[in-house]
Amino acid sequence: MVPRQRALIGAAVSRPCTLVVCRGCCCGDARKHPGYDHDWQLERLVAAASDAGGAFQVRTTDCLGPCDQANVVVVQPSAAGRRAGGRATWVGFAMDDDCTEEILQWAAAGGPGVAAPPVTLELQFIKPPRDARVRSRR
Asked: What is the pTM of this model?
């Protein structure tokens, strides 16, 4: 018996790596983290995505949940990365220029499933909140 192949349609065929940047109640809040320029970080991420020619994209969302580990950025795999086994990776405490640059380098290289993350960035990987893990399995 020949294994059946899945047909990919629409965006699933070519979806790029996506950086989901939390900008809810705690992440991006100058009152919680007064020493960090949250606007600069988001501008830097968006500008790099624009310069990357579609290699990755950036979007913002409301609270992702782990507020005690703010700022949170979720690196979602591209369609190719997902087919290769890549899964969304949550990065916590993403509040310095080095971390921002490492996230950008990883996304530009293909992200989860395509490229290995920088070793120092792995130290900032966090577990998603339980409800996010349950939603991702549906």
From this structure: 0.84
